[in-house]
Amino acid sequence: MASMRPPCDEAVIRSVDAGSPCRAEARGWILAATILGSSMAFIDSTVVNVALPALQASFHATVVDVQWVVEVYGLFLGALILVGGSLGDLLGRRLIFIVGVAVFALASAGCGVASNIQLWTHASVAEAHGGTHLEEISVLCSDTNKVERVPASAMFIFIGALPRTDWLANIVERDERGFILTGPDLIRDGQRPKGWALGRDPFLLETNVPGIFAVGDVRHGSIKRVASGVGEGSVAVQFIHQYLSKV
User: Quick one: CA dihedral 171, 175, 176, 178, positive or negative?
Assistant: First the structure.
């Protein structure tokens, strides 16, 4: 089996006389730089995988969302590696290595001293306060029934995590969290949902009741995004036309 050495590696090897080893006093620095560089490369390539479970839990992300995070991070990291290599050829590898280590250290220190996010469980916003803009909010803790006012200049409202479908409990099938089951999620062991009288399987966005469709955040397995809800709504219109044409 023939092996081929990368041309860049061969050029680096041939640029130094093999009969002229590094000075004895520089060996320690070379070893330290090698260990530091390989450690930084290892951290850069694995940090996103370490953070994925926390990101998925905090943002209620799906597997598709998490995969997008990995792909975007890998693309950006690859672009930075190419830029760093080009700058090393233009300005010198030693200078770029030192600058890279300094930026990495400063960024890590900044993350370490940055204020952390406070997570209040069993709490809800009871009231907003302010004149021309938001100044404070009142937070109600359901465990203690205590209301605490905290300063706030902005508030992000995230909806979709709770389906609020209790009023449909006796009409359509839902999962254990209350999200409405549709299409293939209604097929169990090859059997159509109970009471299904039509000679076809439920459409992709159709519930266990023929002619009733569910789209957006309320649907089981949907991507909790506005654009996704709009797209599912447009698809549901086509299914509605197909259903009405057979009625």
Answer: negative
